[in-house]
Each structure stands twice: as structure tokens, then as C-alpha cells.
Design goal:
Layout: E1 2-8, E2 11-16, E3 28-36, H1 41-45, E4 55-56, E5 61-68, E6 80-83, E7 86-87, H2 93-96, E8 107-108, E9 121-124, H3 127-130, E10 132-134, H4 142-149, H5 154-164, E11 172-176, H6 180-191, E12 196-200, H7 204-213, E13 217-219, H8 223-233, E14 239-244, H9 249-257, E15 259-267, H10 280-285, E16 289-292, H11 297-309, E17 321-324, H12 328-336, E18 343-346
Parallel strand pairs: 11-12, 11-14, 12-13, 14-15, 15-16, 17-18
Antiparallel strand pairs: 1-2, 1-4, 3-5, 3-9, 3-18, 5-6, 6-10, 7-8
Length: 347
């Protein structure tokens, strides 16, 4: 079969790789219908996170079950399923607590020795613990299928950030970052009842989506100018909750400085570049809480799935460019150059 591999910074290839097969009785083989490129994939693309030449890549996909191991009970051939970006056994203490990202037997798609989502098929370890079944009729609804793909990562990650930020009905929320996760954070904040949502972003196409998702205000400035703008919008106090969806020193500093005393920051931006710029004494003095990290999206898929199916939320607009497998290298280039927000892949 064909799949995306990375060989060096900016060197993405689509190559023939071995077909996935059941290797363990708990395995499920999924034929991919939709995959995508994540903003975090760009750190490997740019050489900011190490990869072995020829390593697979991609961690967001949904598709149809082709084969199951002898111990799999929840799925059969032909089922439509979505996979969270981490596989997990579904039986350990962490999984029971809803923290599947800490499962001792879990792992990330595209890690050394595993399949990546940007290919024609994927071997899924611990299929019963990892996969979530989707309505079969969704396979014929292109928009719905695209919205459901967002559950594999960005929608659940935005929701995780909103929970970390303590979003509640009537609260004021600020969102740092206008990528797909930040935009889904806007959508999640609206879903949780935020009364005012301030989106920080400079790209009109993205802030237009933020407004459609529920943002009441947009701040285009950066750094100290952005902090001043948010404080002006909030009567000098800052936001009750702040979603940090970038992962740089500047973005974290901005998040701290626009949080209201006694407020919370939900951080989900993958840390990269220089230090976090986190001043614990400032957070201590102002009673600011910091919660977040790698989102256990497997725990969130069931409730978010219900809202996608009934139309309460629709994250599909974050996908603004569609390519086939041959177009994946160009998709990386488009996202790196910020001419695309998030690339949908149809193998």
C-alpha cells in the first residue's frame, strides 16, 4: 500500500510500504477514508522534532474496518470508525480514569515501528480500547465525515483546553492561537456556555471562522498590544479563562498576562522553540491556575460525537484544503507557508 513518510526536514514522500496485517489478537486493520495534516506534524516537517528517515507520519484518521483479531469484540469488518491520535488498551487504571494518553501500553501513530494515519490503511493496536464506532450512514455524507474526522484530534484538543481554562456558562474566554485547535477551542468554549469569546489572530480567513464558531471579539495585535486590547475589552481585568493553543514562549506569556486574577489557563499548544516564559511568581500572586497538556481525546469522543451528529457543533470549516495522497507533500508546504489552515487527505 502507499503511505506518507518523512526522510529529512521538508522532505515528505508518498511511498510503497508493507500492507498492515493483524499481528496481535487485539488488532484491527482500518482502511483509511479520511486523514489530515496536523499543525504538530509541522514540527517534524521543519526539523524541530527528530524523525528517522522513512518514518511514517500522521495521527488523525477515520475509516472502515477491514480485519479484526480474534480477541476483538466491539468491531467487525465494514464498521465505520474514528481513531483518536493515541491508541490505548482501554483496561488500565489511566484509561478507566479517562487519561488514555498515559496508558502504559498506548502509543502515538507515526512513532517508530507504528503505522501513520496519512496512508491507505492502518494497523490499530487494542482496537476495542482505541476505536469509536460511527454511524454507517456518515460514510456517504461528505461534510459530516469531515466533521467527524476532527474528533480524532483538534475538536477534542480544543475541548480539553476549554475544560482546562475552566470555561463555564456566562464566563469570558480568550483564545490565543488561530490554528485549527484554537478555532476548535472557540467552538468548545461556545458549547460550554461562554458568554464572551475573544479570539486572538491576525489572519482574516481564520478569524472569520472564529466568529462563525462563536467568537464575539477579535484581537489582531500581538504581544503587549494584544494584552492591552484584551484588558480594554474586559474592563482592565482580563478573561476568566484563557486557551493557549500555540506552545511558544510568547504565546504563554500572553496567556498569563490576559488572564483575570483567579482565572485559569488551559494549555494544549505543543511546546516548541525556546522556554515557556512561565513566571510562577506572577501566577502565584494572581491565583492563576494552569491545566492542560496532551488531550485524552478518546475520553471526549462519545459526548462530542453526539453533538456533531445532531448538528450542535460542526468543526468541518477548519479543513480548507483537500488533497489526495500524492498531494500530501504539497499540503505540508501549504500549511507551513500558512496558505492553508488544515489539510484534509483523501487516500
Amino acid at each position: 500500500m502507499r503511505a506518507t513518510t518523512i526522510h529529512a526536514p521538508f522532505d515528505m514522500r508518498v511511498e510503497e510500504v508493507p500492507d498492515p496485517v493483524v499481528q496481535d489478537p487485539a488488532d484491527v486493520v482500518v482502511r483509511v477514508l479520511r486523514a489530515c495534516i496536523c499543525g504538530s506534524d509541522l514540527w517534524a516537517y521543519r526539523g524541530e522534532s527528530a524523525r528517522q528517515p522513512g518514518q511514517r507520519i500522521g495521527h488523525e484518521f477515520l475509516g472502515v474496518v477491514e480485519e479484526t483479531g480474534s480477541e476483538v469484540r466491539g468491531f467487525k469488518a465494514g464498521d465505520l470508525v474514528v481513531a483518536p491520535f493515541v491508541w490505548s488498551d482501554g483496561t488500565c487504571e489511566y484509561c478507566a480514569e479517562g487519561l488514555q494518553t498515559s496508558c502504559p501500553r498506548g502509543g502515538f501513530w507515526g512513532s517508530v515501528g507504528s503505522d501513520g494515519g496519512q496512508g491507505e490503511a492502518v494497523r490499530v493496536p487494542f482496537g476495542d480500547g482505541t476505536l469509536v464506532k460511527l454511524p454507517s450512514g456518515a460514510a456517504s455524507d461528505d461534510r459530516l465525515l469531515t466533521a467527524l474526522l476532527a474528533l480524532s484530534d483538534v475538536m477534542g484538543t480544543g475541548h480539553h483546553a476549554a475544560l482546562g481554562a475552566g470555561v463555564r456558562p456566562g464566563s469570558t474566554v480568550a483564545v490565543v492561537g488561530d490554528g485549527a485547535v484554537g478555532l476548535c477551542g472557540v467552538l468548545a468554549a461556545r458549547r460550554l456556555g461562554a458568554e464572551r469569546i475573544i479570539a486572538l489572530g491576525r489572519h482574516t480567513a481564520r478569524t472569520d471562522i472564529a466568529r462563525a464558531f462563536g467568537a464575539t471579539d477579535v484581537v489582531a495585535e500581538r504581544g503587549e498590544a494584544a494584552e492591552a486590547a484584551v484588558r480594554e475589552l474586559t474592563g482592565g481585568q482580563g478573561a476568566h479563562g484563557v486557551i493557549e493553543a500555540v506552545g511558544t514562549e510568547q504565546s504563554m506569556r500572553t496567556a498569563v498576562n490576559i488572564t483575570r486574577d483567579g482565572g485559569s489557563i488551559g494549555y494544549v499548544g505543543v511546546p516548541h522553540g525556546s522556554g515557556t516564559g512561565l513566571d510562577l511568581s506572577v501566577m502565584f500572586d494572581r491565583n492563576i491556575a494552569l491545566r492542560g497538556g496532551v488531550a485524552p481525546v478518546r475520553a471526549y469522543i462519545p459526548e462530542l460525537l453526539a453533538d456533531v451528529l445532531d448538528g450542535t457543533i460542526d468543526p468541518s470549516p477548519v479543513f480548507d484544503l483537500t488533497v489526495d495522497l500524492d498531494g500530501v507533500p504539497g499540503g505540508y508546504k501549504a500549511m507551513d507557508e500558512r496558505t492553508a489552515l488544515k489539510v484534509l487527505v483523501r487516500p
